């Protein structure tokens, strides 16, 4: 009896534990009750024992087609020991780990029992056994290589290649694997194991561990508060954004370059008659194409989404914390981009003078760029592919620009669909309306001919650009900011739908496919064996 067991007996069945491993602290709900380091407490057994019995996994491939990936596996893993999974590619190692962790795909169906400390939960004798089965390991061969040689069907292709060589005809190998196919060797190993002492010993061990009712172990999600999660994610996201040159820094350089081009083309646009359309074109380009370039950060955000999905499965933090942290961490970069590029454009073009007009221009530009960021987030939650996401985002913004009121005047846009509701959904429409009011209101422009009266800016807004003067430019700006909020809410909802609704839908479809399976159909082989296994009864497969 060890000292730890003696202490446990003296304490009435409790174990004297000084500290827990990081994994035990995560799984054990009462880990916070432990004293400080260096002290000891009387607690129950908090070790984890995992068993799986008759574990099978079947995958629905299509209408009436299924495939058995795992077939009645039994095993266990104890504290202080290392359990290794060996097998060729496609043999089901990852599927077994997914089944133990409770992360099977929606079209995969599991049977059997997985017990953690005797409760349902998500979650080295090889050389002698192989020799008893008739496949002894040669003296100069690595045992692990020999095990793979027995079950890996890729070696059948090597034997087929060497079959016609002179060496294969002259020399006779003592290796029994050279005279048998992998599929036949696998069947002999499986049949031999089911009758071996190792099989009965493993099942007895599984039954013994399963009867032990230990401490309830549950991850229970993150122990950090919502504020701590949001702050930690914000800091990490900000660091990643600052280190990734393509996320915002490259866009900052391109924005500055483009706005310098705009400033030189529309340099000191003035209030001449030709400046009327020039100011409108400048505003349309800034709030159309310049904001359009925000889709450049889509690939970096998709990579961030992949990290989120993996960490979300482990329950480290919630969706709301991720959405808030991403919004907060991106704000300083967007403000910097809009401030530098907007300032260059505003003062080079010499738009409407006045500090309030300048602030409105920057706020309008910031809101428009942030809307595009939010829109691309929604697209990334549905379509994680780089190319498809950028194409779809560009197409949506192209439609928004068409109904913005510049390429086609608002009253000339067809009312069905394009004006109601597309024009009012387009943030370009509200951004252009607000900027035109901000720039033209209060200015007076020269007429086409010198002897004709001056043209006030309100007249141009009402009769040339067809802008409603009864609506304030600040209302237009508030609509854009409300779109930011709406798109972020959509982003949150799409993630929740992908987590909760879509797996149920895919599982329902998979169950329907299994129900339509023909009664005489048989389960297929695993993907790695389908094309290469040589069946002695049917002959070699033909490619």
TrEMBL record:
InterPro entries reported for this sequence = ABC2_TM, ABC_transporter-like_ATP-bd, P-loop_NTPase, Plant_ABCG
| Residue intervals of the ABC-2 type transporter transmembrane domain | 229-438
Topology of the protein relative to the lipid bilayer: Multi-pass membrane protein
Q: TM segments?
A: 248-269, 276-298, 318-348, 355-380, 386-409, 474-495
What molecular functions are annotated in GO for this chain?
A: ABC-type transporter activity; ATP binding; ATP hydrolysis activity
Transport: present as a keyword of the record? yes
Record's GO cellular component, any one? membrane
Instruction: Write the record's keywords in alphabetical order, separated by commas.
Output: Membrane, Transmembrane, Transmembrane helix, Transport
Pfam family example for this protein?
A: ABC_tran
All residue ranges annotated as the ABC transporter domain in the record: 71-121
Q: List localization entries.
A: Membrane
- SUPFAM superfamilies from the UniProt entry: P-loop containing nucleoside triphosphate hydrolases
The family assignment reads:
Belongs to the ABC transporter superfamily. ABCG family. Eye pigment precursor importer (TC 3.A.1.204) subfamily.
Tell me which PANTHER family the record gives.
ABC TRANSPORTER G FAMILY MEMBER 11 (PTHR48042), OS04G0528300 PROTEIN (PTHR48042:SF25)
This one is known as ABC transporter domain-containing protein
């Amino acid at each position: 009896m060890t000292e730890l067991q003696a202490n446990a007996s003296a304490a009435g069945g409790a174990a004297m534990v000084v500290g827990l491993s990081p994994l035990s602290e995560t799984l054990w709900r009462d880990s916070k009750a432990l004293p400080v380091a260096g002290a000891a407490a009387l607690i129950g057994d908090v070790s984890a024992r995992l068993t799986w019995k008759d574990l099978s996994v079947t995958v629905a491939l299509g209408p009436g087609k299924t495939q058995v990936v795992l077939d009645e596996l039994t095993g266990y893993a104890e504290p202080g020991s290392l359990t290794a999974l060996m097998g060729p590619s496609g043999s089901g190692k990852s599927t077994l780990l997914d089944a133990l962790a409770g992360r099977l795909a929606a079209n995969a169906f599991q049977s059997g029992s997985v017990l953690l400390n005797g409760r349902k939960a998500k979650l080295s004798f090889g050389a002698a056994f192989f020799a008893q089965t008739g496949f002894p390991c040669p003296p100069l061969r690595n045992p692990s290589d020999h095990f793979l040689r027995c079950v890996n069907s890729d070696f059948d292709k090597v034997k087929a290649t060497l079959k016609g060589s002179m060496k294969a005809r002259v020399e006779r190998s003592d290796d029994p694997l050279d005279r048998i196919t992998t599929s036949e060797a696998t069947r002999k190993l499986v049949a031999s194991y089911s009758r071996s002492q190792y099989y009965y010993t493993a099942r007895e061990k599984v039954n013994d561990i399963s009867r032990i009712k230990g401490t309830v172990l549950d991850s229970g999600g993150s122990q950090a508060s919502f504020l701590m999660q949001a702050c930690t994610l914000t800091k990490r996201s900000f660091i990643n954004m600052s280190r990734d040159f393509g996320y915002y820094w490259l866009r900052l350089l391109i924005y500055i370059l483009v706005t310098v081009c705009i400033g030189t083309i529309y340099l000191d646009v003035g209030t001449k008659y030709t400046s009327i359309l020039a100011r409108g074109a400048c505003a349309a380009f800034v709030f159309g194409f310049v904001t359009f370039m925000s889709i450049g950060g889509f690939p970096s955000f998709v990579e961030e989404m992949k990290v989120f999905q993996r960490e979300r499965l482990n329950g480290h933090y919630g969706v709301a914390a991720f959405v808030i942290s991403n919004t907060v961490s991106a704000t300083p970069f967007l403000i910097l981009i809009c401030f530098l590029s907007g300032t260059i454009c505003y003062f080079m073009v010499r738009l409407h003078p006045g500090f309030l007009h300048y602030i409105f221009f920057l706020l309008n530009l910031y809101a428009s760029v942030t809307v595009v960021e939010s829109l691309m987030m929604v697209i990334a939650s549905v379509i994680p592919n780089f190319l498809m996401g950028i194409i779809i985002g560009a197409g949506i913004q192209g439609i928004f620009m068409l109904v913005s009121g510049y390429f086609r005047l608002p009253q000339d846009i067809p009312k069905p669909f394009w004006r109601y509701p597309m024009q009012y959904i387009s943030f370009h429409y509200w951004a252009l309306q607000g900027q035109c009011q901000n720039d033209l209101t209060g200015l007076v422009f020269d007429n086409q001919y010198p002897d004709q009266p001056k043209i006030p800016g309100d007249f141009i807004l009402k009769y040339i650009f067809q802008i409603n003067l009864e609506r304030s430019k600040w209302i237009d700006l508030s609509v854009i900011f409300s779109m930011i909020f709406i798109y972020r809410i959509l982003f949150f909802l799409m993630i929740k739908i992908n987590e909760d609704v879509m797996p149920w839908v895919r599982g329902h479809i998979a169950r329907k496919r299994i129900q339509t399976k023909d009664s005489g159909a048989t389960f297929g082989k695993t993907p790695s064996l389908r094309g290469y296994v040589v069946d002695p009864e049917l002959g070699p497969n033909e490619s």
